[in-house]
Design a protein that fits this description.
Blueprint (H helix, E strand, L loop, with lengths): L4 H6 L2 H10 L1 H22 L51 H4 L41 E5 L17 E12 L9 E13 L6 E3 L24 H13 L4 H12 L5 H15 L2 H10 L3 E11 L2 E9 L4 E6 L3 H8 L9 E4 L11 E3 L1 H12 L4 H26 L13 H15 L4 H12 L1 H5 L12 H17 L5 H19 L4 H13 L21
Parallel strand pairs: 1-3, 5-8, 8-9
Antiparallel strand pairs: 2-3, 3-4, 5-6, 6-7
The structure holds zinc ion (ZN).
């Protein structure tokens, strides 16, 4: 839309006749703008969920095929027990920065330390309860003047006209320290927006703060310049909450104690959700980059969302990591791997969880198998102890072969499976014997080996690859600690925010870049209504993924 409401209100029959007499060409140009705006408005009016451009990222992976439980409760104001719901439905501070600092205790949906609210009571300020205005007065460090550049109706240059300030807001932000200038500096900018009457056609032109278009599921969190918390400070809050694992209350204390800045928990929570919304389009880049990798490690761990047991999934390659929170189902993996136009061509490293089994090009983590064999060695049954020891002996022989191949002239890039035919045949006999054992764990391990044979020994075809799924387990560890601190998330939006932020932070770390600076850039660009900047590039000199 080119024309703003305030401008349309001024354009009536008198204005158009006046413009026609003064400058017919300008009238023609204005007509084109009006026609374009009308077409765009009509198209929006005709949008339905099936034809609108809802970004792919706004669908959770288990929703894409429409086969999973439809638990989207965006139209449902009630928090039903046992369902996922957007519990941050009653907060929006995008229209007025004063209210940002004011909403007293909008509860955290992803990681506040307070207890979950009683059923049917939405988190945050209750309707009708008293709000609190922002009370801290800061000294303005800078004033930014925003003026219209040219007339919307006749394109007349307005840069030399002063105009009158008609609205404004304040933004508090930080300047990060750098190598040459260490330290953290707080800025408080007064943004003034001007109205300039066009001397040619008399239209009152106004400069407006930028605002990104609303998208489904994030309607409650506007992405706009009109914010109390600037992009760098917002990024710092995200960093403190997710990288440093501070609760909202601790971040509040940190900002107050170290920077003398008083922000309420509700503001911090809004900043985090807004940042996650800003980061959402990055997911497409992440998916593309991940599916270009030749080996992806996958793992999952339990995650509570408003009392519902879900799973935090990680898919991690050499330079990209993706996190999702959802059900422990096949759809998450299928939807991710099928996002590639030709289907994912690389290999998947996982544990023995059966969801992974249907993926053909798979590798099994040996650490789990070795642990199970060790357990057999400690069994009371002499037969099981013997089986366990046999399995361990063969695995150690094979590991020696793999390490020798890695140290060899080909750096482990050559298939060595044929060199170990005898050992594999020997192990197969052991496993078949184990399957006949009456000892349950012995029987189970024998069956596990035989069922997953190809995946377990595929490593012999690619000895340079890792033997364990440590990459994925290590990537989850940080977020497991965060889950313990925060007791999980409170809403679907909170879970989505956590997964997006985790994906971006972990990927930046893998690429040896600072998530703090990248997230700042993303928030800045998206508040201006622009696309997300490219992720930090994969350094060509990054160390090859060599296994344990
Ligand atoms: Zn004009």
């Amino acid at each position: 839309m080119v024309l703003k409401d305030q401008e349309l209100q001024q354009i009536d029959a008198t204005f158009l006749r006046h413009l026609k007499d003064k400058d017919p060409e300008a009238l023609a140009n204005l007509s084109i703008k009006l026609a374009n705006d009308l077409k765009e408005a009509r198209e929006r009016l005709n949008q339905t969920p099936s034809n609108s451009s809802r970004p792919s990222g706004s669908f959770a992976l288990w929703e894409k095929n429409g086969t999973a439980d439809d638990t989207d409760s965006s139209d449902n104001d009630e928090d039903l027990p046992g369902t996922r719901s957007n519990s941050i439905t009653d907060k929006d501070s995008c229209s007025d920065p004063e209210s940002e600092g004011g909403s007293p205790d909008e509860s955290a949906s992803c990681g506040d330390e307070t207890k979950p609210p009683p059923k049917k009571r939405k988190p945050g300020r209750q309707p009708g309860s008293q709000g609190f205005g922002r009370i801290q007065q800061l000294t303005v460090t800078k004033t930014d003047h925003h003026r219209p550049v040219c007339c919307t109706a006749c394109n007349n240059d307005l840069t030399s006209h002063a105009g009158i300030a008609y609205t404004g807001f304040y933004t508090v932000d930080v300047l990060f320290g750098e190598t040459q200038t260490p330290g953290l500096e707080l800025t408080y900018t007064h943004h003034l927006y001007y109205c300039t009457p066009c001397p040619l056609c008399d239209l009152d032109n106004r400069a407006y703060p930028q605002r990104a278009e609303d998208v489904p599921k994030w309607e409650q969190v506007g992405l706009t310049e009109w914010r109390l918390v600037g992009p760098a400070l917002a990024s710092m809050i995200v960093y403190l909450a997710f990288d440093m694992r501070l609760t909202r209350r601790k971040i509040q204390r940190f900002l107050d104690d170290l920077l003398g800045l008083k922000l309420c928990v509700g503001t911090l929570q809004n900043v985090i959700v807004e940042s996650a919304r800003a980061l959402e389009p990055v997911e497409e880049q992440l998916v593309n980059d991940l599916l270009d990798e030749s080996l992806i490690h996958a793992d999952e761990t339990s995650h509570g969302e408003a009392g519902v047991l879900l799973w935090l999934w990680v898919f991690i390659g050499r330079s990209t990591a993706l996190f999702y929170i959802g059900y422990r189902s096949l759809e998450i993996m299928d939807n991710l791997l099928d996002s590639h136009p030709c289907g994912y061509q690389g290999y998947l490293m996982s544990d023995g969880y059966q969801v992974y089994r249907h993926f053909r090009k798979r590798l099994r983590c040996w650490a789990h198998l070795i642990r199970k064999a060790h357990a057999l060695c400690e069994s009371y049954s002499p037969e099981s102890r013997q089986h366990g020891q046999h399995v361990l002996n063969v695995l150690h022989e094979l590991m020696k072969g793999i390490h020798a191949a890695r140290d060899g002239p080909d750096d482990g890039r050559v298939d060595i499976s044929s060199q170990h035919d005898a050992q594999l045949a020997q192990l197969k006999v052991i496993c078949e014997n184990m399957q006949r054992s009456r000892h349950k764990k012995t029987q189970a391990l024998g069956t596990e080996f035989l069922n997953d044979w190809e995946a377990i020994f595929r490593i012999l075809e690619h000895p340079a690859w890792p033997l364990t799924n440590n990459e994925a387990e290590r990537a989850l560890r940080h977020w497991v600690i965060l889950r313990r601190i925060t007791q999980g998330t409170r809403s679907e939006q909170g879970s989505r925010a956590l997964a997006l932020i985790a994906s971006v932070m972990e990927t930046c770390r893998l690429r040896k870049a600072s998530p703090l600076h990248y997230i700042k850039e993303v928030i800045y660009e998206r508040r201006q209504g622009r696309d997300v900047p490219q992720l930090p590039s994969v350094e060509s000199n990054m160390i090859e993924c060599v296994g344990v």
